[in-house]
Sequence to fold (816 residues):
Amino acid sequence: MLDDETAAVLATVDRFCREVVEPRVGRPEQVLPLAELTHVETAARDCGILPLPEPGLALWEGVEPPEGLQRSLASLVRLGESCAGVAFHLHQISLAALVGRELGLAPSVRAALLMGRGLARGAVVDALAGRVPGRDGSDLLREALPGAGSGARTFLLHAAGPWETLLSPAWDDAGLSWRGFPGEALPVAGAPGQHGLDEVPMWEVRLPAAGSGRELVRGPAARRLLATALGLSWLGLAAIALGATRHGLALARAHAATRRQGGALLGEHAAVQELVGEAEAAVATVASALRGVPAVTGAASLASVLGVRAVAHRLLCEAANASLQVLGGMGYMRDAGAEKIVRDANHLRLLGGTASEAWLFLARAEERP
Amino acid sequence: MTLSGHLDPADPLHPRAAFARLPSLVRPLVAYEPEPLWEADTRLLPLALRRYRRKVREFAARVLAPRALAADLAPHGPEEREVLLAAAREGYLTDLLPVPFGSISWSRLRHPIALAQSLKMEELCAACGGLGLLVGAHGLGCAPLLLSGDLGAVRRFLLPAYRRTRSGDPQLFAFAITEPGAGSDAEESSGASRAQPGTRARRVEGGFRLSGRKIYISGGDVAHAVTVFAALEDEGLASWTCFVVVRGMPGFSVVRRELKMGQRASGAAELLFEDVFVPDSHVVGGPRRGWALNRATLNLSRVPVGAIALGIARGAAEAAVEFARRARLGARPLVDYQEVQLEIARMWTDLAAMRALVWQYASRWTPRQARASMAKVFCADAAVRVCERAMALMAEDGLLQRNRAEKAFRDARLTQIYEGTNQINLLAVVEDQLEELAPLAAIPPAG
Fold:
């Protein structure tokens, strides 16, 4: 049962999807122009889906109580159903705003968030717990967390539109910190030919060597913030993938209900029912798992969140593939939309750490509570 | 040289070093020199096919690989024409007939054509699934002519096309069976028995008039001629007849080129037939032979489709291995980590299983439906799995097209769909083995 606040927010998100997003993404073979995405972003801010200077019920605002977290997750599922790229864009803006606020940035500053390159083979567990990892672990953390490191390094960043400040966690001999980099000082190059999330271009950002950028926070506060940012980021990606996969399943069901093969409707064949059933089971399992996440409260809750994410993405990618298969040759064509959902689900799976890294992280989290 | 967690090959405890110390009498039975898996597999082949595999691999690396990313980002550019011209020069578009008519050497002709085609498709598609299909789909278009046993049709259509191709003017054929609203019916007998054919041939003086549409025709956009299957007026798919329709015939047009997820260098075209007059001389093998020619063509081509999947997956695995050897994580190369080594070993294991199946089932002159479909299904599914692993091994770098694994994933996904979806192919396995599945007790009548 939804509380009144959540129901009102979800009604707003639903209307926003129907009236603003879906009319613009009806041709999946055409990439949404940046100007249109900017318009969508402005409309999202106007109706309170994106954060305003004053606290409200926007994405990732008020997520400490479970109902607040579930409100954002349900919103992202609905947005992902309309368009995973748009949902991802709004998710990123909101998460960057949350981190920026925690780091004391003025609400007017447009920040981009660079969380790093994976999970440092699970060594992020140590960083979050305030432990000093071994030499290997330190090397891995320096490389994985963008804001530090022994030399200039290149990271991949998704960003549509300009940003003024890049916020990122950093690891050095003194532990974990957060740093801010002025946008105009960073060399950025386009990375053409990205797998999915066509609406949000990928860039290669070259970060300078250690010690550059401005340190914004260090110590326990930095660790708490990284845990929150990682947890919400992971959950957001899984929620968006769930929404996108639901859309793929709807396409498959519609196709199976209208197209005929062998003198019968496609949906009457067991071979097709298997595919639809597999996708349904995956969607239901992930939806249930996301509803079961109570809160993201620091490092302690991260292991369960990561476990949900790692399993969710595998299931959702399989479900998106099964849905495409129902459409047969048509599903492979870009104008049908199903192939984009497969790419988007795959893309979301690989962001912010792979399943293999998740297993290492979880094994270490269990080893060293 | 070694990796973390493994002994140096010179260490006395390393198996190969230990084998080398065994008595010379038994050493040939257990000892061997290290060599790349590709080389070891190649040496399993007969000499003529060994040479052929090396030759195609060199061609793919020289001609296809440098053009693969550009042809994927901007399909239908100059790259495709360049590849076709080079393939024509090297004989890869005329390799269904022996010299002097085609380009198969007599030493290679001792082995089934499907095996050589499978070797070729693996190598081409390891470099690029789309450009590989561009070259390979032509063979599919030619197959009904050869399988018809209609020497007149071969003489009238195939030999002149081969001659012009060998002289540097590629004359491609495309195979056209799929129709709007009836994709799988063309590939499955039970469905075909109930299907309403969309493309029809009406008998007229001196020939037939063809009307209808064919969709998703690989290479249909660049083909000089199409082997089209149409039902005779007022009849079902059992009346399917194969016609050669040549570009430029009045009423025949390419009306659409699809935007595909992958294999983009090869066009998927929609062909429109508006009362196209096709003379009797363009009927392949005689009226009502089309269904048999269609199914025989699919049986011949499905193992090579498995090889396409194998090639694409190998390309992804090679890209991932190269990445793992080049990239560093912390102070060590990526390949030094055990979880990365495990992923590489899993990919190699899948590739080995795919290749074993393809080579075994392509090693017979008469392709069997069940085997052809099993090879296609297994390889297509395994290829997607390998590509997913390759992308995951590269993590976020796997999302970039230039690292090749994401392109391979998109390319591989099509192999689960074309030449009959994997579901249709599984039913084809059952159809071919019905006798083995006969119920042990009589089935009561329905109702």
Strands of chain B lie at 173-176, 200-204, 207-218, 225-232, 241-246, 252-257, 268-279, 283-284, 328-329, 332-333. The first strand of chain B starts at residue 173 and ends at 176. Chain B touches chain A through 58 residues (CB under 8 Å).
